[in-house]
């Protein structure tokens, strides 16, 4: 896939602008588990997911994590290019959840085109606004939705992403997605097991009561 | 003050674009406590604070609140014009915390200029990115910072805004800012009182131990 195909407004860029971006974009592969962008290293660039799955998360001083959002095929991440926007003061970490192929667009190149191109600047506004919406939604979940519902929703989401009822995932990984601790997640999953919603074995959570999980997630 | 003075990129707009915005902007006054934008009514428009203080918050189904950010003099709020950006799917409420004078720019006018003007589109990106940073910061506070530190920081912030150590504020209002409940805040303030950090009387919280509060907020 060409880099052009990831930008719906590509045709509204001039040939020079198109060339600037496509010639500067670098294709990269990241293995499952690899850190693609590290919050304290400010400006990796814009990330475009060609295939695979990335996870964007924040990290506390004590090493706790919560997933802000995931990046699927064709998704574009701007938070890894925060130097482009002086008012974007944040430190997020981005990790490959699967083997991933991505394009990296250097922030200075993207910024120089964006400053002249209203279509690209407006498209960028849309991207940031979309992340803002997701994060406000997440804030509502964290504040007002009980953890049992959030765990149920997460297991169903994972199952949809993996296309399987049997998930190879540790309790710690679930905790890191949801901003919780391993102990709390283990207790919750044991309760789910006693209710017939999941079956637990080492490193695997199998969904056995999808209806109950769905009812809980939607409650 | 002219509407022009609130936009640092005003000079980069064409005379027609300047005229479109300044002739469409409506000056409005809002009394302390008045709801200026209601999440379920989608598109009030861009809000520009000429004087006063606004509070942007989200509301749970059960009526709980948390303040996302406050808008001071010269601040611009885009979240009240979410229809401008189709990917901005969110419902926030905006309330005057003091008697406030604001300009409202109709979303269709702002959008039509933004779509043609790279400077305005880039400025808009900056505004959204800045809110995104604030909300991720807030998420970190809610997830990882204990409530006693958040209450201490809030009291110090209020004191700075009001220019006084004596705050006319109810426990419920503090709870609504911080996403907590009145009961929890009352318990916390009584503990602060026993530690000599505040003195409580009906409808008033007086800061009596600023050093201790500052140490707690920074811990």
Structural overview:
The first copy, chain A, is an alpha+beta fold and 219 residues long. Chain A has 2 domains: 3-143, Jelly Rolls (Sandwich), CATH 2.60.120.10; 145-218, Winged helix-like DNA-binding domain superfamily/Winged helix DNA-binding domain (Arc Repressor Mutant, subunit A). In chain A, 42% of the residues lie in helices and 23% in strands. The first copy, chain A, is built from 7 helices and 11 strands. Chain A has helices at 15-24, 107-116, 118-144, 147-162, 171-178, 182-194, 210-218; strands at residues 26-30, 35-37, 46-51, 54-59, 65-71, 76-77, 93-96, 100-105, 166-168, 198-201, 204-207. The first copy, chain A, has a 4-stranded antiparallel β-sheet with strand order 1-8-3-6. In chain A, strands 2-7-4-5 form a 4-stranded antiparallel β-sheet. Chain A has a 3-stranded antiparallel β-sheet with strand order 9-11-10. In chain A, a hairpin with a 5-residue loop joins strand 4 (54-59) and strand 5 (65-71). In chain A, helix 2 packs across helix 3 (118-144), helix 4 packs across helix 7 (210-218) and helix 5 (171-178) crosses helix 6 (182-194). The longest helix of chain A is centred in the middle third of the chain and has 27 residues, at 118-144. The first copy, chain A, is elongated, with a radius of gyration of 19 Å. The mean pLDDT of chain A is 93.
